[in-house]
Design goal:
By secondary structure, the chain is mainly alpha-helical. It has one domain: MFS general substrate transporter like domains (Growth Hormone, Chain: A, Up-down Bundle). Helix content is 84%, strand content 0%. The chain contains 16 helices and no strands. It is globular and about 60 Å long. The two termini are 35 Å apart.
Length: 395
Amino acid sequence: MQATWKLKGMLFFIHSAMTILVSYLPVYFQHLGLTGSQIGILLAVGPLAAIMSQPFWGFMSDKWQTVKRVLLSCLIGGLITGFVVFQMTAFLWIMLLLFIFFAFMAPAGGLGDSLAQKVSQQRGVSFGSIRMWGSLGFGTSSLLSGFLLARFGIENIYYLYAFLLIIAIFFCTRAPDSEPARKKASLKSALKLGANPLLGFFLLMIFFISLTHRVNDSFLGLYIVELGGSESIIGTAWFIGVITEAVVFGMSAYWLRRFHPLTFISIAAFIYVIRWLLMVLANSPADVLFIQVLHGLAFGLFYLTAFQFIARLVPEELESTGHLLFISVFFGVSGVIGSLAGGVIIDSFDFRTLYQAMFYFAIAGLGASFIYRRFYFRSDQGKKELKKIADGLEQ
C-alpha cells in the first residue's frame, strides 16, 4: 500500500505539471504577441515530438525492462530543457527548443500510466484507482495555477511548472518499478506490430475520436478568453472537467467490466458529439463551465478502456510499446493535425466554426467505432472472446 501511494503521488504531480503546459501554453504564447497561426504551429510541435519520442521511449522501457528509470530520465530532461524554452521570445527559437523539450516531456504521462497499469495488474489493484490521482493532480493544479498565474502573471509560468515537476521527480525515485516480462522485447518483434491489422485499425479509430479532443485541449483557453473569461476561469473549466474524469476513473472497478471496452469507446464517442454541439451553442464562459462536466465522462470512459484494451492487441513483452503507440496517436498525431488545422480555422473564420468542424468529425469517429467493433469480432481474436463470453454464460 505504501509503495502504491508513492506511485499515486508521482502521477499526481506529473499531471499537475502537465496541466501548466496543456492549459496555459496557448495563453503564454499569446502573451508573447504571437499570431493564431504561429500559436497553432507551436502547439503542433509538442505532438510532433511525441509521435517520434513516445514509441521510442516505450520500446526502450520494454527492452531495458524498466519503466521507472526511463520515466525518471524523461522528467529530469523536461526540467532542464524547459528552463531554456521559457527564456526564449523569438518564434523560431521557441519552435526548435520546444521540440527538444517535448521529446522528454511528451512520453512522461504515457510512461507513468503504463507503469501504473503494470503495477496494478501485478498487485491486484484497480488501474483506475491509481490513475485517478493523475486526474486529481491535473484538476487541482488547473484550479490553483489559474489563480496564481492571474495574480503573478503568465510570464512566470515556468517557475510553477518546475516546482511541481521537482516534486514529481522526488516521488518517481521512490515509486515501485514494474516486474520484468517473461520474454525480452526485441526490435524485430516491435517492427512486426506495424503489420498487425487489429492494432492498425484500432489506432486509426482512436485518431478519429481523439482529434476533436486534442483540438479542444489546444484552444479551450483561447475560446474562454474570446467569450470574456480570464485565466482563473480557464483553470476552473479544467478543474471541473478533470474532477469528473477522476470520479469516472475512481469508479472504474464498478463499471469497467459491465460491458466490452469497445462498447464504452462508442459511448464515449457519442458523448463527444453532444459535447461539441453544446460548445457551438455556448454564449458565455459560464456555459463552458457547465459543458466541461462532459469532459470527464467522455475522456474518462474513452481513455481508460482504450488504454487497457490495447494490451490485448500486443505481446506481453511489448505492452509499454503498445501503450506509448496509443498515446502517440491520441496526443501526438491528433495533436499535430488538430493544432495546425485549428489555428488555420481560427485565423480564417472563428471559434464557433472550429467547434462545428469538431462536431462533424466526432460523428465520423462514432461511425468508425461501430465499424471497428464489427471488424474486431469477425477476427480470430474477437471470435475467441465471443466464445469465452458464451461459455461463461452457459456455466
